[in-house]
Amino acid sequence: MRSHLNRGEVCHVTKEDIPIETLREEYNMSVQKTKFTCPECNASYSNSSGLSYHVTRCTVTPEVKIERLKKTVEEQEAEMSELRQELEEHKKTVEERDAEMSELRQELEEHKKTLADKNNKIEECEAFIKEYEHKLAGIIRVLFI
Fold it and tell me: What is the pTM of this model?
């Protein structure tokens, strides 16, 4: 079936017109051939038997393996260094935001105090107005009697 779907000349449809790409996806058949790669020297082969034959004769020296491991370690250390720098930047950002939040909390407390003071003054004014309304009502009663 794989060779039928991958051939160059497309067959004529007899029952249903289903695109070849759909059939390939349905049956998990890709157009590209799978490549088999040697983990030591990165040589690639089109089939597993070629890779197996190569692995038995692969002559990567221990020095080459050590060099590859050193390069890998250096790359990982560079990546870790970058990540540490990013972490420090994030820590600074968090500290700055914490300072901003602290300032905002202080401002909020000041506004609460100001609002409480204004509410107290309003209550005092309302009490004063009620007291004088009561006195004024008494004066008006005396005048009209």
Answer: 0.43
Q: What is the pLDDT of residues 25-46, one digit of tens each?
A: 777 666 555 688 888 787 888 8
Which H, E and C letters describe the chain, residue by residue? Answer: CHHHHHCCCCCCCCCCCCCHHHHHHHCCCCCCCCCEECCCCCCEECCHHHHHHHHHHCCCCHHHHHHHHHHHHHHHHHHHHHHHHHHHHHHHHHHHHHHHHHHHHHHHHHHHHHHHHHHHHHHHHHHHHHHHHHHHHHHHHHHHC
Residue 113 CA to residue 108 CA, distance in Å, equals 9
